[in-house]
Amino acid sequence: MAKTLPKTDVVIIGVGWSGGIIAAELTKAGLNVVGLERGKDRKTEDYFMVHDELRYALRYEMMQDLSKETITFRSNEGIRALPMRSYGSFLLGDGLGGSGVHWNGQTYRFLPYDFQIRSKTIEKYGKNKIPAEMTIQDWGITYDELEPYYDKFEQMAGISGEPNPLGGARSNPYPTPPMKKSPALQLFEDAAKRMKLNPYMMPAANLSEGYTNPDGISRAACQYCGYCERFGCEYGAKADPVVTVIPVANKTGKFQIRTHSNVRRILHKGGKATGVMYTDVTTGEDIVQPADIVVVTSYVFNNVRLLLLSELGERYNPETGKGVVGKNYAYQVIKGSAAGFFEKQQFNTYAGAGSLGVTLDDYNGDNFDHSDLKFIHGGAIALSQTGSRPIQNNPVPSGTATWGKEFKAKSLHYAYRTLGVGGQGASMSFKHHFLDLDPTYKDAFGDPLMRVTFDFEEQDRELGVYLAARSAEIMKEMGADHVDYLKEIGPYEIVNYQSTHNTGGVIMGAEPSTSAVNTYCQMWDADNVFVVGASSFPQNAGYNPTATVGALAYRTAEGILKYREKGGLLV
Q: Counting C-beta atoms within 10 Å of the first and last residue's C-beta, which end of the chain has fewer, N or C?
């Protein structure tokens, strides 16, 4: 029998960006909060002088153990899903701070169009522009309504950047200046400007200078070591929950973190949650934590899976389109890239930072005319200098042998003569892309795994090829002697890494018939349950999701305090 602990005001499931932000805001307001994290503890000292590409980038030190829990995948409902046994298309973070510790730090705001995509698309192009099977929808909230929360996240994290000339209005400038502009970035910017495009420095959670945030947290500037993605930052220069919001919550004395605590069920009765049941993975003991409010802030797949396992909310039925939990899974089209090979110029791309780059939005959102195109939306195009670590980087031009003397010679020749320009395409939701529980495969506790049903559609293929062609045009303008770029996209494959930008499954909206949560990430079916993260996105934009996740977390924290005072569904 499970052991029952004393009741707390709030229990948070997963202590990453969303969980850390909400814990900080609620404890500052005087609430007692328990944070349950199924992974281990983390601190900055863990990464002092640990530039180990093999351990972290290739052996996935900071990722979920797939032998104990994974997902299953199929491209359509007509085939059997199989477990993902090794990492490929995306990486599932584990441990305190979650994916917020090993991210790159690229911190874009979504465009105003993203939040009203269905209504804006129909208004400009008509209903026929949206395919019958595409299930995109407005968020129920506008960019202007979310903007103050974007600003709050940026001020907390110390984001370094400059305004997007094609983005939404800002209430404040970025708190710190843009990062340094390397020769490669300058080359991209100059070429883009000659093409009458609108480049700007990428908004970065890698600090350009020392910074103290509104909570009094001080951090040092980035050293451009090139070890950001899949790594923890030894300087604390990369904003992550462990060095920003979690210390604020801890300082209040009202936050208790329990690591190695795998939450397996949300307990509920009569339309309200009563707490959670979790397993202490160090002892195998099942524990019940009662709480007035339950906040689900784990990764996309885990948020959806926990609701389904707990039988909380109406599960999505792809045949009828009814139900909401598991609906509108979307990803990212990281296919619109171009590689340029230079004979006379050399670049030190081994130095860098996770969000050191120049980007442009001329082909993102609805910033260009889609009348004669077979897709909607688009994506940001950027040249990023994230650090070309030696094991994973040895590009050669197309037509080169993939092994042997020629491959080795050209690998050495182009080691400092290669740049990449890439498009990050939006991913639209479709009726037949969804998440549910696998009927066959189970985790180490005997609970069903999360099953993903997804494939690239004509929308994705057309968008990806379009962005690749635009990327190639910029690369040619930069003066590359040889340019390789994507000319067609086949079926989605789960074996090659693309991005960890999975979204949907517990989507946000204005009506309970088409969404699982309202604009405060509060469940329609259980008003004391809040589900926060990229699982709220009804479809994905042409950017990294973290800034929007952070903004939603701040708005949710505000909503929880309102709920604590008055109760009921928030409006």
A: N
Residue % of the chain over a pLDDT of 90: 95
Q: 411-443 in b/e burial notation, b at 16+ Cβ within 10 A? A: eeebbebbbbbbbbbbbbbbbbbbbbbbeebeb
Supply φ then ψ for residue 483, to 5 degrees.
-125, 125
In the chain, the amino acid numbered 5 is: L
Structural domains of the chain ordered from first start: 3-566 (3.50.50.60)
What's the average model confidence in pLDDT over 358-373? 98
| CB distance 212 to 221 below 8 Å | no
- Residue of 268, 377, 433, 501 marked catalytic: 501
**Cα(first)–Cα(last) distance of the chain, in Å?**
40
The verdict on whether 102 is a catalytic residue reads no
Please check whether residue 44 is in contact with residue 218, taking contact to mean a CB–CB distance below 8 angstroms.
Answer: no
Burial class (CB in 10 A: 0-12, 13-18, 19+), 9: middle
Alpha-carbon dihedral of residues 215, 216, 222, 223, nearest 10 degrees?
-150
Contact indicator for 361, 380 with CB cutoff of 8 Å: yes
For residues 165 and 203, give the distance between their C-alpha atoms in angstroms, rounded to a whole number. 13
Locate 492 and state its tokens: 């989605």
Cβ burial, residue 75 (10 Å; 0-12/13-18/19+)? middle
- The total number of residues shown for the chain amounts to 571
C-alpha distance from residue 376 to each of 132, 327, 435 (Å): 14, 20, 24
Confidence band, pLDDT 50/70/90 cuts, at residue 19: very high
